[in-house]
Specification:
Elements lengths: L1 E7 L6 E5 L3 E3 H12 L7 E6 L5 E2 L5 E3 L3 E7 L12 E8 L2 E7 L5 H13 L1
Parallel strand pairs: 1-7
Antiparallel strand pairs: 1-2, 3-6, 4-5, 4-7, 8-9
Organism: Chinchilla lanigera
InterPro entries: DWNN_domain (IPR014891), RBBP6 (IPR033489)
Main location: nucleus
C-alpha cells in the first residue's frame, strides 16, 4: 500500500490517504480526502499544494507520487475570486475616552489598514 500525507492548513497534524500504485491522481486524492473529512463536493473544492515545494496541483489528472506530503485548503467552487478590496469599517462613539474600530474583510492584509485607520482616528 502506498500513501500520501495531507493536512489542512489550519491543523497541526498530518492524516494519511492510502492507495495502490506509485501515484494517485489529484482527482482521486481530493475524493478520498473529502470522503475521510465528510466534506460535500457541492459545498467547496480542495486546493492541494505540495508541502515541500509549495507547488499547487491544478490539473485533476496530475499524478502525486506516493509518500508525498500536501497541504489542503477548502476553496469555493470555481476557485478563489479576487476581491475588489471592499472594506467595512464601523466605529462606535467613544466610551470612557476610547475609540473602537471594527473591521471585517476576507483579506488578511486589511487588518493592517484597520490598525492604521484606528491610529489615525485616535490622533
Amino acid at each position: 500500500m502506498s500513501c500520501v500525507h495531507y493536512k489542512f492548513s489550519s491543523k497541526r497534524n498530518y492524516d494519511t490517504v492510502t492507495f495502490d500504485g506509485l501515484h494517485i491522481s489529484l482527482c482521486d486524492l481530493k475524493k478520498q480526502i473529502m470522503g475521510r473529512e465528510k466534506l460535500k463536493a457541492a459545498d467547496s473544492d480542495l486546493q492541494i499544494t505540495n508541502a515541500q515545494t509549495k507547488e499547487e496541483y491544478t490539473d485533476d489528472n496530475a499524478l502525486i507520487p506516493k509518500n508525498s506530503s500536501v497541504i489542503v485548503r477548502r476553496v469555493p467552487i470555481g476557485g478563489v475570486k479576487s476581491t475588489s478590496k471592499t472594506y467595512v469599517i464601523s466605529r462606535t462613539e467613544p466610551v470612557m475616552g476610547t475609540t473602537k474600530a471594527v473591521c471585517k474583510n476576507t483579506i488578511s492584509h486589511f487588518f493592517l489598514h484597520c490598525f492604521y485607520l484606528y491610529n489615525v482616528a485616535v490622533k
